[in-house]
Design a protein that fits this description.
two-stranded antiparallel sheet; 2 domains; globular; alpha+beta; Beta-Lactamase; six-stranded antiparallel β-sheet; 9 helices
Length: 223
């Protein structure tokens, strides 16, 4: 797929996925195809250790959910994953090669790295963590590159370009979930009294706004 064409199509699907979880597989399938990866993961949660609370967790391959792999990883491997605490200490938005999260000895002996990530096809994958409001923790990742020849510079550039858009998609999704407005559609969002919604055209002109947003605009507080 031509990268410029892929990037625009991916953004369109991410915008849809921010409003409706049912569109997330479509977005990830196109990301995986364009990037050249065997799958992807997204985890949204809060807390640490035994007090981790997951709000949203998906492991997908070509847009198909792998609930079997998700259950196995989160129930069996996550509590013992040596790489996750190290990932949490990395800067917001920094793309990390999965092997760099494990010591040389762990890459030889760790059940997580040698069993769990192998089953997920992610031992040579990429991970990034994002900050969210109110202690929200977001981790997104790509599985191994297709072909097994390692990551090429063009693939990494595309992933880097997509990261802020993926982050924004997740934050929008969480705001709508908190307002119980996921999947409401444009008309439903404009009628929703719990969140401010402004509908813009491609040029940034306001096409519609609901009462909450209009109140903010009238006060001159901006968007």
């Amino acid at each position: 797929m031509d990268p410029p064409d892929a990037f625009g199509r991916i953004l369109g699907l991410l915008h849809c996925a921010a409003l409706d979880d049912a569109r997330w597989p479509d977005a990830t399938a196109l990301i995986e195809e364009a990037v050249g990866t065997a799958g992807s993961t997204l985890t949204v949660g809060e807390g640490f250790g035994d007090d981790v609370r997951l709000h949203f967790a998906r492991i997908l391959q070509r847009g198909h959910g792998r609930e079997d792999l998700a259950r196995e990883y989160f129930n069996v491997y996550l509590p013992h994953d040596e790489g996750i605490p190290r990932l949490r200490r990395r800067p917001h938005g920094e793309l990390v090669h999965v092997p760099d999260l494990y010591t040389e000895d762990e890459r030889k002996t760790s059940p997580v790295y040698n069993e769990g990530l192998r089953r997920m096809g992610s031992r040579e994958g990429l991970l990034v963590r994002f900050d969210g409001p109110d202690g929200l923790r977001v981790i997104w990742g790509c599985a191994d590159p297709v072909g097994g020849s390692g990551w090429e510079s063009g693939q990494l550039r595309l992933v880097e370009r997509l990261l802020p858009h993926i982050h924004r998609t997740v934050l929008t999704r969480q705001a709508l979930a908190a307002a119980e407005a996921l999947g409401a559609g444009l008309a439903g969002l404009l009628d929703h009294g719990g969140i401010g919604v402004v509908h813009l055209d491609r040029g940034g002109r306001v096409l519609a706004a609901n009462d909450v947003a209009l109140d903010v605009l009238r006060r001159g507080e901006g968007l």
